[in-house]
Specification:
The chain is an alpha/beta fold. The protein has two domains: about 1-110 and about 260-363, Isopropylmalate Dehydrogenase (3-Layer(aba) Sandwich), CATH 3.40.718.10; about 120-255, Isopropylmalate Dehydrogenase. Helix content is about 40%, strand content about 15%. The strands form two sheets. Strands 2-1-3-12-11-4-5-10-8-9 form a ten-stranded mixed β-sheet, sandwiched between helices. The chain has a two-stranded antiparallel sheet with strand order 6-7. Strand 8, helix 7 (about 195-210) and strand 9 form a beta-alpha-beta unit. Helix 8 (about 220-230) packs parallel to helix 9. Bound molecules: nicotinamide-adenine-dinucleotide, 3-isopropylmalic acid and manganese (II) ion.
Length: about 375
């Protein structure tokens, strides 16, 4: 017997609609294969929403998300609004949505697919076998701290970096639980040699670690971590860090695995999960059908696993992605020269759908 789930789908800006369409095509194929009923409810967010209704997170979108079983999002961000007041910026909508859903733990797995060992800029012998997962704190830190202001007249701006014990405990628990299902190592990343928030972070993470005796904990400064991710990414298992550091380091991991367009994410917390690729709206690629949809497709797989408990289905999608890459399928970001043969975004999605369907026939 299949399950019945309501998924709010927020394409957003730039390449968001293209990669979301790809992810939806894969979800639809999985639903047909396993007789699930996924009701997809589209909603507006970001610059696309500002254009239509004057606000980047319309009330109906927020209400639909609160009623959903899970939310799938493409990307937000539109150069037309880069200088708009904060409340009218597309990015503000995403931060408000994360806060409203209480998704304080952002899982960003970065695994190097065997077929892509030579696709990225780093030497294959250094990066082969990379399999790490960031657990990024997502609803606190500098992104949300008050007071905050900018005064162009006086030339002063303020942001506030604040963390409470409770905020650190809950995200650390997610990281340690995850490490227990993986290779039992948590690397906590901070700047405790300078920042008081990091000193609290380090101390609280140490307290939480005591409750997970099978998991080893190490502390690394963020600057050293940035270098180690490029030099020796295999040494990491679960990388636990605060909001801004996690934002920066996860993009770096995109280069390690071959492309930012490959990375998925799951934002988990109080109930409803939010699933989005790590990349942004890539305005220069928008509308050209060249974006890599794999990050969005793997985000849909994470939704099946984390929100719906559909492990087989999630594994099916990941296996289909692996099979297409093994067979040489590449989007433009994964080939050395633009003139090398490659697939469009929609063609890559079609290949992955075909691989899911083919697996269904042989199952
Ligand atoms: P970006 O992630 O959009 O792009 C960075 C680089 O990666 C660009 O060269 C882009 O072409 C490439 N890229 C990104 N996704 C790709 C994909 N799927 N396939 C192939 N190549 C891909 O970051 P940016 O250029 O710094 O930001 C653009 C806009 O996106 C900004 O408005 C920013 O605020 C927003 N943004 C949104 C999110 C989000 O919605 N979660 C994340 C990051 C940035
Ligand atoms: C991400 C993005 C967002 C963030 C922006 C668009 C608000 O860069 O999801 O990584 O900084 O969290
Ligand atoms: Mn980011």
């Amino acid at each position: 017997m299949g399950v019945s789930k309501r998924i709010v789908v927020l394409p957003g800006d730039g390449i968001g609609p293209e990669v979301v369409e790809a992810a939806v095509s894969v979800l639809t194929a999985v639903a047909a294969k396993h007789r699930h009923q996924f009701t997809l409810e589209p909603g507006e967010i970001g610059g696309a929403a500002v254009r239509r209704s004057g606000t980047s997170l319309p009330q109906p979108t927020l209400e639909a998300c609160h009623r959903a079983d899970a939310v799938l999002l493409g990307a937000v961000g539109d150069p037309a609004y880069d200088n708009a007041p904060r409340e009218q910026r597309p990015e503000y909508a995403l931060l408000t949505l994360r806060k409203a859903l209480g998704v304080f733990a952002n899982l960003r797995p970065a695994k190097l697919w065997p077929a892509l060992e030579s696709a990225g800029p780093l030497k294959p012998e250094r990066v082969a076998g990379t399999d790490l997962c960031f657990v990024r704190e997502l609803t606190g830190g500098l992104y949300f701290g008050e007071p905050r202001s900018v005064d162009y007249g006086s030339g002063e701006a303020v942001n506030t970096l604040r963390y409470s014990r409770a905020e650190v405990v809950r995200v650390a628990e997610v990281a340690f639980s995850l490490a227990r299902q993986r290779r039992c190592l948590v690397t906590s990343v901070d700047k405790a040699n300078v920042l008081e928030t990091s000193q609290l972070w380090r101390s609280v993470v140490g307290e939480v670690a005591v409750r997970y005796p099978g998991v080893r904990l190490e502390h690394v400064y963020v600057d050293a971590c940035a270098m180690a991710i490029a030099l020796d990414p295999r040494r990491f298992d679960v990388v636990l860090t605060e909001n801004l550091f996690g934002d920066i380091l996860s993009d770096e991991a995109g280069a390690v695995v071959g492309s930012l367009g490959l990375l998925p994410s799951a934002s988990l917390g109080l109930g409803i999960g939010l699933y989005e690729p790590v990349h942004g709206s890539a305005p220069s690629l928008a509308g050209t059908d060249v974006a890599n949809p794999i990050g969005a497709i793997l985000s849909a797989a994470m939704m099946l696993r984390h929100s719906f408990g559909l492990m087989t289905e999630a594994n099916d999608i990941e296996a289909a992605v692996g099979a297409v890459l093994d067979a040489g399928g590449r989007t433009r970001d994964l080939v050395a020269n633009d003139t090398d043969s490659h697939l469009t975004c929609s063609a890559m999605a079609a290949r992955i759908v075909a691989a899911v369907v083919a697996a269904a026939r042989t199952a």
